[in-house]
Specification:
Elements: H1 2-9, H2 25-35, E1 42-46, H3 54-71, E2 76-80
Parallel strand pairs: 1-2
């Protein structure tokens, strides 16, 4: 949300999708497909977890990131949050 705020303040259109770790992968991909256009420059993911099923969450995020890069090779990916250390 902090990055989205900064981008909006500087004239960029942004969309935040929350709870990526809890939503089904298919739903996340559908949401991303709705908002990514040829003009999209960056896709950012905030990755959070309460510590349970961390391996499953990271596998899902990895799958989503590979899908984004294959489907939208023109976008850059930014990830943040406590699981990105």
């Amino acid at each position: 949300h902090q990055l989205a705020w900064y981008l909006r303040k500087n004239g960029y259109q942004t969309q935040v999708i929350n709870y990526v770790q809890q939503a089904p992968e298919k739903l996340i991909k559908e949401a991303l497909a709705k908002y990514i256009t040829p003009q999209t420059k960056v896709v950012g993911l905030g990755i959070m977890s309460n510590g349970t099923e961390l391996g499953v969450i990271l596998k899902k995020i990895e799958s989503i990131l590979y899908w984004v890069k294959r489907t939208y090779p023109h976008v850059k990916i930014i990830a943040g949050g406590p699981l990105t250390n």
